Amino acid sequence: MKLLIVFHHRFDFWNVPLWFAERLRKEFPELQVVRLTSYDGVEEQIRDAEIVITWSLRPEQMKGAQKLRWIHSPSAAVHQLLFQEVVNSDIVITNGRDVHGPVVAEHVIAMIFALARKLPQASRFQQKRVWGQEELWHSRPHPREVAGATLGLVGLGGIGRTAARHASALGMRVIAVREHPEKGSPEGVEQVFASSQLDTLLAESDYVVLAAPVTSATHNLIDAARLATMKPDACLINVSRGQLVDEAALAQALRDNKIGGAALDVFVEEPLPASSPLWEFENVLITPHTAGLTGKQWERQYTLVAENLRRYLNHQPLLAVVDKEKGY
Question: Any idea which residues carry the catalytic annotation?
Answer without folding.
Answer: 241, 270, 289
